[in-house]
């Protein structure tokens, strides 16, 4: 505790020095180089003793913390960043160094910014003196200053300039690394984006790494929004950066939409909303996306907010079971609400003591919220932070990053919770069920095609040549039901023949993903009618005038005498039935076909094998289902009834 009183005195020493040399920006910047800090830190031996003791007590492993704990310190924070706070971090990031339209960088020159930079370098020096590690990076970009990335990184000249500028700032001011906070490539949002941003970002980071070498830190702060994540080539970005910090917060906030402002948790750990709410608006989805796309959880750092969002005038929730999820009205002065630091919530709002706030816990999102009449607040507390840390441990993530340390309570209760939980718990065995399509879409959506929207399965119109599946993350639409439409609930997810892609994402790529032969069956459900598709001469002809068959890749691969596709003896093994079934695992080639040229209708051990197996004859082909002793498929007694012949119909 005493450290709090001692350190500001230490800091004051430099502040005087800094203000003595503020004749111009460059000089004042050089005054905060760590070398200058040495004397002042050394002058207080009690500090050092306490520092050592604190560090040991806080960690029993201290800097050996298994995960990165990255804290942003904002240039506008009026609260000093203390050495005690730095003890709870492995890395700190100063936000922000300013970028101009050409890509030139400059340190902010206002006194508050200088003070915070001073704090950071004091903390690093204190660590160094103890033989401990604490790295300080600077951030560029952010919500207010990302507008120049896209144009600057579009040209070789601009990219080189920015790379050189970063190297210059790193060297001149002795930072340990840079954090690139481009909000956001491709989708823009804070500024205009374009498709080339995605590749340009990788090229830029590749060049930056080449320039800085392996020992400087390069990190990226990345979007968590379901649309904005498309702007990142995660796997290639990870080749050049030390970590990606996922900004997994601001899923709900007091901003505009046509229906009003949607009220919900700022940083729900997991999907928490009623049906109809996106399953992608939560920490779990965002972090999983980066881990699955990058295949390296040790470089994925999960964002943790030290602040909350609030709304002034909310309507009652339409879902009694989801009281936090509601809509807020816009006030006459144009605002819906705002955000508040945890410190403000405790000191100015007196959240803990004030009886006007009814405090609740949302167990689905693992976050606290508070309500006072129509006023609603979503925030974080020690409990929610602990849950988030457990998650980071469970999935063995690279660590967590905090936006921002200066918003913590005066006694650092959130940061202490992060540090204790993040460093004391070992790695968990949590593994994500990654979507094997890795962002590729193979389902029909309404905006693309109103007629085919929602159709799935083997009888549906092909989507880009694929049998359409269902979006595993679309709420209530992630199962392919018996009727050939994507849906939710028992009838689509739990029935025999239904496919639940949310529970079994591996089925998204289960073979056959494309038709194994020409499409000679009805698609769409007017004639195909999923459970009873039409086939044979009695059925309506295909658009090209030919007689429809049944899809051999489907469960209904036999045509009954009455002209309907189905399975079982009444469709496959009766007088007048035609079977298009395939033996063995669907899609596996077991015999040669006319496509195979001279090998067509060849069989037996004397001809080349197919995937290591002796080729057989098509047991469903009335003219070619037997293999002769000479190795030819046919249906005559020489093929079927001789010594050494094999009749494959008997084996199906
Ligand atoms: C709008 O009104 C709210 C509630 O009265 C108030 O707290 C807030 O500061 C106002 N905002 C502005 C921009 O005036």
Automatic annotation (TrEMBL):
It comes from the Eukaryota. InterPro entries: Chitin-bd_1, Chitinase_II/V-like_cat, Chitinase_insertion_sf, Endochitinase-like_sf, GH, Glyco_hydro18_cat, Glyco_hydro_18_chit_AS. Residues 1-23 form the signal peptide. The keyword Hydrolase applies. Residues 67-425 form the GH18 domain. SUPFAM superfamilies: (Trans)glycosidases. Keywords: Chitin-binding, Glycosidase, Hydrolase, Signal. Gene3D superfamilies: 3.10.50.10, Endochitinase-like (3.30.60.10), Glycosidases (3.20.20.80). GO terms for molecular function: chitin binding; chitinase activity. The keyword Signal applies. GO terms for biological process: carbohydrate metabolic process; chitin catabolic process. This is Chitinase-like protein. It comes from Bemisia tabaci. The lineage of its organism: Eukaryota, Metazoa, Ecdysozoa, Arthropoda, Hexapoda.
């Amino acid at each position: 505790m005493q450290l709090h009183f001692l350190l500001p005195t230490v800091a004051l020493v430099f502040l005087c020095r800094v203000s003595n040399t503020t004749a111009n920006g460059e000089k004042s910047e050089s005054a905060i180089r760590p070398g200058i800090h040495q004397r002042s830190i050394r002058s207080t031996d009690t500090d050092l003793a306490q520092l050592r003791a604190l560090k040991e007590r806080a960690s029993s492993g201290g800097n050996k913390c298994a995960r990165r704990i990255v804290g942003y310190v904002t240039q506008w924070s009026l609260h000093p960043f203390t050495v005690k706070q730095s003890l709870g971090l492995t890395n700190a990031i100063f936000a922000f160094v300013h970028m101009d339209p050409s890509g030139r960088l400059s340190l902010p020159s206002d006194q508050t910014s200088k003070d915070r930079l001073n704090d950071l370098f004091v903390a690093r020096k204190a660590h160094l003196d103890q033989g401990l590690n604490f790295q300080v990076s600077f951030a560029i970009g952010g919500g207010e200053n990302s507008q120049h990335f896209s144009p600057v990184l579009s040209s070789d000249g601009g990219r080189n300039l920015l790379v050189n500028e970063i190297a210059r700032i790193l060297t001149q001011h002795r930072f340990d690394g840079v954090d690139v906070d481009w909000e956001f490539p491709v989708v823009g949002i804070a500024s205009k984006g374009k498709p080339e941003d995605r590749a340009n970002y990788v090229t830029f980071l590749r060049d930056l790494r080449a320039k800085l070498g392996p020992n400087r830190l390069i990190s990226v702060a990345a979007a968590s929004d379901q649309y904005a994540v498309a702007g990142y080539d995660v796997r290639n970005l990870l080749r050049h950066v030390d970590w990606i910090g996922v900004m997994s917060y601001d899923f709900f906030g007091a901003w505009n939409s046509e229906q009003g402002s949607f009220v919900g948790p700022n940083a729900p750990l997991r999907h928490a909303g009623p049906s109809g709410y996106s399953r992608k608006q939560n920490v779990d989805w965002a972090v999983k996306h980066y881990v699955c796309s990058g295949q390296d959880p040790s470089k994925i750092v999960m964002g943790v907010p030290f602040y909350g969002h609030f709304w002034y005038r909310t309507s009652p929730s339409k879902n009694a079971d989801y009281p936090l999820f509601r809509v807020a009205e816009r006030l006459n002065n144009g605002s819906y609400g705002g955000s508040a630091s945890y410190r403000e919530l405790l000191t100015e709002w007196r959240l803990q003591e004030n009886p006007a706030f009814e405090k609740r816990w949302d167990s689905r999102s693992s976050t606290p919220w508070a309500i006072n009449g129509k006023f609603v607040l979503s925030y974080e507390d020690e409990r929610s932070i602990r849950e988030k840390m457990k998650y980071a441990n469970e999935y063995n993530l690279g660590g967590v990053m905090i936006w921002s340390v200066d918003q913590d309570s005066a006694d650092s209760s959130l940061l202490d919770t992060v540090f204790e939980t993040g460093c004391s718990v070992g790695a968990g065995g949590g593994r994500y069920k990654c979507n094997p399509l890795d962002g590729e879409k193979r389902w029909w959506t309404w905006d693309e095609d109103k007629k085919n929207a929602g159709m799935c399965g083997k009888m549906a119109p092909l989507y880009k040549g694929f049998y359409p599946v269902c979006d595993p993350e679309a709420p209530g639409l992630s199962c392919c039901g018996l009727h050939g439409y994507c849906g939710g609930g028992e009838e689509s997810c739990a029935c025999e023949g239904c496919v639940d892609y949310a529970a079994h994402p591996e089925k998204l790529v289960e073979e056959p993903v494309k038709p194994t032969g020409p499409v000679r069956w009805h698609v769409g459900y007017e004639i195909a009618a999923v459970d009873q598709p039409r086939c044979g001469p009695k059925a309506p002809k295909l658009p090209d005038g030919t007689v429809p068959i049944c899809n051999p890749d489907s469960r209904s691969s036999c045509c009954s005498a009455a002209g309907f596709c189905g399975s079982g003896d009444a469709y496959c093994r009766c007088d007048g039935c035609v079977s298009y079934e395939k033996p063995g695992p669907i899609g596996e080639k077991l015999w040669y076909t006319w496509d195979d040229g001279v090998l067509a209708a060849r069989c037996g051990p004397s001809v080349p094998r197919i995937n290591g197996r002796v080729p057989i004859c098509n047991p469903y082909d009335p003219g070619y289902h037997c293999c002769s002793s000479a190795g030819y498929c046919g249906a005559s007694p020489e093929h079927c009834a001789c010594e050494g012949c094999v009749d494959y119909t008997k084996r199906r």
